Amino acid sequence: PEPSDLRYNWAVVRLAAIDRDEMRELVLDAWAFVVPKRVAEEHFQKADPV
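^ thats the sequence. predicted structure below, dont judge the formating
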């Protein structure tokens, strides 16, 4: 990305270079960054119970 775009916390990904699990992790991380903290915490607790 251009230096001026870095303020948006974008990720640049070459899809041919990553696998499905890596893509899932990137999407979940991006989602968790923009939803309310409580929503992300609830989702991750349900997905990975201790």
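The chain has one domain: 3-47.
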